């Protein structure tokens, strides 16, 4: 009986920690950057830069792809193999601004600081 109760409590805890991408995006971003690059140029730079930076710090290769939110105005870059608990481990949102682009980093799952710093370095290389 005690074992079943422990399993039930653990299962409830796991389910409570699940969140969707909408939940992740409803919270403030982990980091925000600005660049003078236009949104298309920023996205073209970020895809390969994020992939190589994260792959250098992780035990596997990562690739980021752009998802079009509003053509020519807003994109999300997400890892092709980075879904945990129903959401991406990292989402990099790029929005067009009058002076270039705004880049927001969302972290959907706690990750090792070395991996998060690698993603930040990938962004910094494109500013």
What key attributes describe this structure?
127 residues; alpha+beta; 4 helices; 41% helix; disordered N terminus
| Number of helical stretches of at least 4 residues | 4
Query: Which residue ranges are poorly predicted, with pLDDT under 50 across at least 5 consecutive positions?
Result: 2-17
Find the structural class using helix and strand composition.
alpha+beta
Round the Cα radius of gyration to an integer and report it.
17 Å
What integer is the average pLDDT? 82
Q: Shape, please?
A: globular
Main pleated sheet:
5 strands, antiparallel
Order of helices and strands: HHEHEEEEEEH
**Strand neighbour order, sheet with most strands:** 1-7-6-3-2
Q: Helical amount among residues, as a percent range?
A: 40-55%
- Give a count of the beta strands, DSSP E runs of length 2 or more: 7
Termini gap: 57 Å
What portion of residues belong to β-strands? 25-35%
Secondary structure: elements and pairs:
Layout: H1 2-17, H2 21-25, E1 31-35, H3 39-57, E2 64-70, E3 74-79, E4 83-84, E5 87-88, E6 90-97, E7 100-107, H4 113-124
Antiparallel strand pairs: 1-7, 2-3, 3-6, 4-5, 6-7
Model description:
With about 130 residues, this protein is α+β, with helices and mostly antiparallel strands. The protein contains four helices and seven strands, in the order ααβαββββββα. The chain has helices spanning about 1-15, 20-25, 40-55, 115-125, and strands spanning about 30-35, 65-70, 75-80, 85, 85-90, 90-95, 100-105. The strands form two sheets. It has a five-stranded antiparallel β-sheet, covered by helices on one side. Strand 4 and strand 5 (about 85-90) form a beta hairpin. The radius of gyration is 17 Å and the shape is globular.
